[in-house]
Amino acid sequence: MSRRADFLAANRGRRAPMPGFVLLVRERGDGDPAMRYGITVTKKIGGAVIRNRMKRRFRVLARELLPVHGVAGADHVLIGRSEGIERDFGLLRGELEKALRKVMSRPLGEAPPRRRDSSKEKKKASTGSARTDVRG
Fold first, then answer.
1. What is the pLDDT of residue 30?
2. For the structural domain made of 4-105, what CATH number should be given?
3. What percent of the chain shows pLDDT beyond 70?
4. Which of 5, 25, 36, 126 suits 68 as a labelling partner, its CA being 20 to 30 A distant?
């Protein structure tokens, strides 16, 4: 995947957070059974050397595990986390397998239930505009 719109669309899909990364999976629904993957590692993680190292490791994992455990016709996005920098490669492999199983356990097309933040709702209710009309 190379287009920003594809990454943003994947963000609306299913997610499986793990210590070393977050896996996003979203079915494209275009009838194409090809699996695509994308990798994102932000500058918060580290400099270019560290980010490129993480991306190389994720690429190897994706090429190894997605054909076997991935979702056909879906986009898979791996988002690097700071805990994944020096993580053992075997642990990362196990976490990706676990994340793919977790994503596959939910029926396709079903998004995970979103938790509502009650503090935001209370804040919205309390900041309602009270309009006063002053005529003089």
1. 82
2. 3.30.230.10
3. 77
4. 5
